[in-house]
Amino acid sequence: RSDTGFRSAKSIVNNNNLCIVSTKNIDCQKKILSELKKNKKSILFLGNSQMGAINNFKSGDLSYISLLSKNLKSKKSTISIKGLWLPNANIKEFEIINQTLDKCDINTKLIMIPVFLDDTRINDIRDELDNYPSLICQKEKSINSVNSPNLSNIEKLNDSIKNRFKIFKDLDGLNEKFRIDIYKIRNYFFNIKPTTIRNIRKTSYEDNINSLSNIIKVRGNKELKTLVYIPPLLNSNNDGPIPYKKIDYINFKKQISKICKPQNCIYLNLENEVPTNLWGLKMSTNFRTQKEELDFMHFTGQGHKIFADKFSEIIKKYAKDIL
User: In a 3-state reduction of DSSP, which class is residue 258?
Assistant: First the structure.
């Protein structure tokens, strides 16, 4: 799944607080889940590349997850902050991660879920989540392989080929470049720009909304809270363009707020939390021009700092009654 905006930003693949969900990054994810199970005062953030990437990266910049964790530790808080993210994550994939927590016998009392209208346009589940519990749960063994639970047969074959033949070592990079070029060709012929209106895809939208309802319901049945929020969006607080029909965006927010029932869910609209001047630019996604484009998804390190401060306020307000 190509995300050229994500490619323009600095991504955080793994650290003590934050991991990208990938079959190449299993140990990091296991450590996250181990901490969630061990520390009953853990909060898990799920997200896409808005969480895991920093635009116009400067030395010393940290994601809002790491900044939030650092802030809480400085106040001697026992709350543990962890994050799992996927580029272009959809809510159906968040549901699989939540199901995995259940299968791993992890009952995290509070999970934070951003709901992006753009990501409801995606309906497929990526390969990284195939047999995810078998890869991640500490006590479970792989359905396909008892001896090598972390790699599929195809992955092992790919690695073997790459080790034997130097020409194939750059295969993944070449494949990614090819996908991005296809993306640019599409944008060129259909004159698609960052500000092009992205229409709702009804079937995909409904599937993702159903997944959100399922997450909230399943967790609510176990007396676990879910905090659902509308994430920051460039130009949401001014007259600048946004990539949706305004009526679609308004109705979307209304629907999310209705799904989030107070007894087991908290709904927040955080769309205006990152000021316009703290968003970055991304590389061109069109062969017509090499000029950098508006990036409606990723903000700068200073934007991450402001967002971390906001979550500090949110945790102070809600966590005492939940954790």
Answer: helix
CA triple 19-69-101, angle to 5 deg: 45
**192 DSSP 8-state letter:** -
Q: Which DSSP state fits 271?
A: T
Name the residue type at position 218. Answer: V
Q: Which of 93, 106, 125 is nearest to 32 (CA)?
A: 106
Task: Tally Cβ neighbours within 10 Å of residue 306.
Answer: 17
Do the Cβ atoms of 53 and 8 come closer than 8 Å?
Answer: no
323 confidence band (pLDDT: 50, 70, 90): confident
Quote the CA–CA distance of 306 and 106 in Å, as a whole number. 30
Instruction: Provide the residue type at 297 as one letter.
Output: M
Q: Mapping DSSP to helix (H, G, I), strand (E, B) and coil, where does residue 273 land?
A: coil
pLDDT in tens, 75-129: 999 999 999 999 999 999 999 999 999 999 999 999 999 999 999 998 899 988 9
DSSP 14: B
Q: Torsions phi, psi of 61, nearest 5?
A: -65, 140
Q: What are the φ/ψ torsions at residue 183 (nearest 5 degrees)? A: -60, -45
| C-beta of residue 50 within 8 angstroms of C-beta of residue 86 | no
Give the other-Cβ count within 10 Å of 48's Cβ: 24
Residue 211 vs residues 153, 216, 256, 261: alpha-carbon distances, Å: 30, 9, 12, 15
The pLDDT score that the predictor gives to residue 193 is: 52
Find the Cα–Cα–Cα–Cα dihedral 165, 170, 174, 176, rounded to 10°.
130
The two tokens of residue 16 are: 């003590």
Token digits of residue 267: 């709904």
